[in-house]
Design a protein that fits this description.
The protein is α+β, with helices and mostly antiparallel strands. The protein has three helices and five strands, in the order ααββββαβ. It has one domain. A five-stranded antiparallel β-sheet has the order 4-3-2-1-5, with no helix packed on it.
């Protein structure tokens, strides 16, 4: 009986610790596969999920020099470039991203 209780509690606790975002959108998985086929970046490429303006968004930080970062909506549409580029301020279409984002979650980071 104790073994059944322990197994049940373990199952329930494991379920509670999982993210509410069990799966990535297909376009995120395709982007990860694309990044894996490219040379290793410095710093390593990564994809982050945040809540921003009451929506799930995906952020790909700039990975070199004067390249801008990219912020995507849940459907894979580019919303803006929050930072990077020649000015360091991105395209200035979402200047509040870094102050308003919440619930940071690392989705993927190149570990090669």
């Amino acid at each position: 009986m104790q073994l059944l209780l322990i197994a049940t509690l373990s199952f329930l606790l494991a379920g509670c610790s999982q993210s509410t975002h069990a799966r990535n959108p297909a376009w995120v998985d395709r982007l990860i596969e694309q990044y894996k086929s490219e040379p290793v970046g410095n710093p390593p490429l990564s994809i982050w999920r945040y809540d921003y303006n009451d929506h799930d968004v995906y952020f790909v930080p700039a990975h070199c020099c004067d390249i801008a970062s990219t912020l995507y909506d849940v459907d894979g549409n580019i919303l803006c470039s929050p930072d990077g580029g020649f000015t360091g301020t991105g395209d200035e279409r979402c200047p509040d991203f870094f102050t308003q984002r919440t619930n940071e979650q690392l989705i993927w980071q190149d570990s090669r």
